């Protein structure tokens, strides 16, 4: 019987086969850039041009990438009532695959944010520090990305969805970073079934079910199994 409410959390592994490096693999993003240099508010204050160049590079990589079969399968699933898609990724590939109402808890690389007034607008391919805000005119543009030390976005919507979950799935995330890493525990507390889809199990015993393999293969099969029953 198909669960009534399904909450899906995705991480960098969902986009790995689209050519976007994950964070903590051998060739991961955090092997080439120190988090403290490019992904914290202090880094932006200390050297805004370095941080802006880092995100310009990630914006170009995301724009050049194509959604893979896993993104398309989750886009199909998102059109079912009772499905909430949460992503830690900032690449917007789920949206480009046609997924509806994706919750971007770490923001979007294709978005710009005015640090002065909070206005958001689509980011140009390269985001200069002095780009005037379309709303208030201040030259305080930053990537609309959640940095370490900042609160993730939309936690109220995420907590409301988890409270009602019958099934929670974590796809392509190492479960290293909170609060996302704790979502499975919240789901278990409300009695949801839990499943992990990943190249390999990240936390044996933490999920009721673990499906291993590349997302582009196992995610479409999993979605088909949900919509068939
Ligand atoms: P956190 O647990 O993610 O990080 C705590 C501190 O530890 C951070 O200040 C960071 O410097 C460090 N840290 C965390 N994980 C690390 C890792 N795997 N390797 C090395 N250092 C690590 O909690 P937080 O600081 O409250 O982060 C807030 C949110 O910002 C988190 O959800 C995080 O995932 C998010 N974030 C997003 C991006 C992005 O590029 N989208 C980058 C960094 C953080
Ligand atoms: N198919 C399925 N899973 C995969 C694939 C693939 N093709 N390739 C990699 N994975 C899995 C890895 O096994 C790993 O568990 O994806 C996970 C990637 O983990 P991380 O690199 O840690 O990425 P993520 O979990 O998304 O990081 C969480 O940390 O730095 C912050 O904000 C940043 O959103 C990021 C957060």
Spell out the key features of this protein:
Rossmann fold; 34% helix; SIR2/SIRT2 'Small Domain'; binds nicotinamide-adenine-dinucleotide; six-stranded parallel beta sheet; 10 helices; binds adenosine-5-diphosphoribose; three-stranded antiparallel beta sheet; globular; alpha/beta; 229 residues
Could you characterize the architecture of this molecule?
- The chain has 229 residues and is α/β, with parallel strands linked by helices.
- It has 2 domains: 1-18 and 68-106 and 152-229, 3-Layer(aba) Sandwich (Rossmann fold); 21-64 and 108-145, SIR2/SIRT2 'Small Domain' (2-Layer Sandwich), CATH 3.30.1600.
- Helices cover 34% and strands 19% of the residues.
- The chain has helices spanning 13-16, 29-32, 35-38, 41-46, 48-64, 69-78, 93-96, 155-163, 183-189, 215-228, and strands at residues 6-10, 83-87, 103-104, 107-114, 120-122, 141-145, 167-171, 193-198, 209-212.
- The strands form 2 sheets. It has a 6-stranded parallel β-sheet, with helices on both faces.
- Strand 4 and strand 5 (120-122) form a beta hairpin.
- Helix 6 runs parallel beside helix 10.
- The structure holds nicotinamide-adenine-dinucleotide and adenosine-5-diphosphoribose.
- Residues 30, 35-36, 39-40, 90, 106, 145-150, 152, 176-178, 180 line the site of nicotinamide-adenine-dinucleotide.
